[in-house]
Write a structure and sequence with these properties.
Layout: H1 2-5, E1 10-14, E2 29-33, H2 34-40, E3 45-47, E4 54-56, E5 69-72, E6 75-78, H3 81-90, H4 95-106
Antiparallel strand pairs: 1-2, 3-4, 5-6
Bound molecules: zinc ion.
Zinc ion (ZN) is lined by residues 1-2, 5, 7, 32-33, 35-36.
Length: 113
Amino acid sequence: MSIACFILKTRSFPTRPIIHGGESSSDNLVLACLKCNRRKGANLTAIDPVDRTVVIIFNPRLQVWGEHFTLVGAYIVGTTPTGRATTALLRLNDEQRVERRQVLILGQRYPPE
Ligand SMILES: [Zn+2]
């Protein structure tokens, strides 16, 4: 979810996977980088790494990024169970992503407007 990771090279992917009854209509699509899409797959839930509960992952169509995540330097930090589970599932802070964010921050191209 580019809205979550803010990595470039985005494409449209369904927020509710087709396998779970989602449609390829504009109201079910969200821009996402290929990495996020692959990590999300057909998942609608993930495990919050703090309290180990299963929670519904962040849906950029229905939820506000800033209510579930914050940016600490180049790291995306989940501030709610949903944010933490989504961050872990999508591996938003893997080394390559953090390095890309650092470059974008230095170029004042991150976070996007
Ligand atoms: Zn992404």
